[in-house]
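Q: Got a minute? One more chain.
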Amino acid sequence: MKLGLGIDTGGTFTDAAILDLDTKEVLVKAKSPTTYHDLAIGITGAIDNALAQRAVDVEDIKMIGLSTTLATNSILEGRGGEVGLIGIGWTPDKEWKFPTKIAHYIKGGYDSMGAIDEPMDDAEAERVIDEICPHVDAVVVSGKFSVANSVQESTVSRMISQKYDIPVIMASHMTAELGIYERTVTAVLNARLLPVIQDFLKSVEKVLSDRNIDASVFVFKGDGGLMSLDVAKKMPVETILSGPAASLMGGMALAETDSCIVIDIGGTSTDIAFIDDGFPRLNQEGAMVGNWRTRVRAIDIWTAALGGDSVLRNDDKGNLTLGPDRVLPVSVASKQYPTLEEQMIALDTVTFFVPNRPPTANFSAKDHSVYEFVKNNAPCSMFDALKGIDDVVFVRDQLMSLKSRGHILEVGLSPTDAMVVRGQHSDADREAALIGFKVFGDRISENPEALADKVFELAVTRIGEELIRKGVSDTGAELEGSQALLSLSKAVAGDGTLKDFDIKARPRYPIVGVGAPAHVMVKPLQDRMDSEVIITDHYDVGNAVGAVLSQITESVMVTVYPKELKYVVVAPGASPMTYSTVESARGAAVSYAEYNVKEKIKEHDAVDIKVRTEVEESKFCDGYGQEMKFINWINVRSVATARPRLKE
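A: Always. Here it is, folded:
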């Protein structure tokens, strides 16, 4: 047999699935808690749990597909190596920020057609190289219009490599898109992630080696495709949004449909994406992670702070709300903390705190004091903390800080507890959930079962609402501040808001649900929205399935511009080329794009390479808005897809 092992490190669990690569059948699946301080531990647990369920000959495992949240989380948490930046021919605007340790900007640069704008001073370049390189782990070189001409970037990179043994990242190698700020951010983040991802992938390789698994390893990218292990070590920024993308592509693979809407329900969030004819819609502006706008190609994912573990609260008008914070459901927490039930009754609250991640080197004395108190008194109520911690003045603020940084978890009521009460989730403590809903419900005169039903229906409505909001957002319409839109979106999601109208939104594509609660929380949309909803077998490990069943992808963009009655072809990694006719320029652009995309995808150890090329022409318009025959620009994009080469 030829088997594939898919692994996904999610926010709550690390999933593993072993598939027959010929039949695409899922043979075994397993989960293990994600271990944030060392993701390899959770991966080890998931692999071992999978292998323990079925007698699998590890020699039959020919491919590993890995998706991970590590890059995204590292960027959000500010973790990574120290990076230096050398800018050529430009200086940053006042509001521009880069996650660098040191940066210098020198003379040089090109214009938009690749012609030299200002010569570079080699002596100046050498001086800033010596000022930066001894103090950083990697250097980024980013030149003005380097996507049109990268010679100056190459020169500085070569000067660095001849003198210092550190990684050098050329911004023009990260993306062919214009935008010096976004291109530089992408390169700097890639440089920061190098030690983080490389250490992680090395530890994964050791886990596999210790289990005698000798297979080709591929890593999932944020655009829904795979890349080889060697390329991933050089281009870790491409793994931004890897986890959500794997889930969405896995949903498509499990449903065996090329066009669909995939809704991935997790513990913390819900991800929604559209897939057309097997290709996910991509975010044209590049992935946004935290405050950083990048030029990383990624699936256009609509993420809502709504999941099985979203906290239940009352707003200032007395309405029930879910999220955006995530909690440890009381029905889950009580299995680990047996005193929770009596504490909820005695203190008349469902809100407690428990330890999650261990302290880190940057912990302050206040952090240690509050963390240790919570750890020693878990589950710890706010009252207990305020009363028992006497060496910290603002205890509440310190608790919230540790919670936001992931070191402690809040215990509370959530849709998971509602599902437990309704008999839709058996692996939890129903009695604890009932007590929690009684404590909460007594404040609003609701009995526990009725309140659980309301919370569940609210969760389903919210999923439908987010799907509608995604559709409206795709039209370019403004979403915020419209009460009418809010009421209408609830109505079409089937909550009965407009009592005199039976309104349903009917998606053109079937809805595919993945994620652990999908069979419960997504399935009701079939009746509510008059839509086909597909919940397949193994929907709960769609992420791991996507990590192993997807293809390798690469793309190259080449642009043609008119200049002085001739046509200039601007291609990444090459000097501009001038042609006398638009036909010859277009043909050269197509040839260059197709050749280079094939060369790029060969770096991934790919087989069965297929190339698809699209040519988009823009022409000048006259004063009446009518298109004229004169070319404004031509974009040629070649996309290559291929299968991963399996280990012999």
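A: The chain has a mean pLDDT of 89.
Q: Perfect, thanks.
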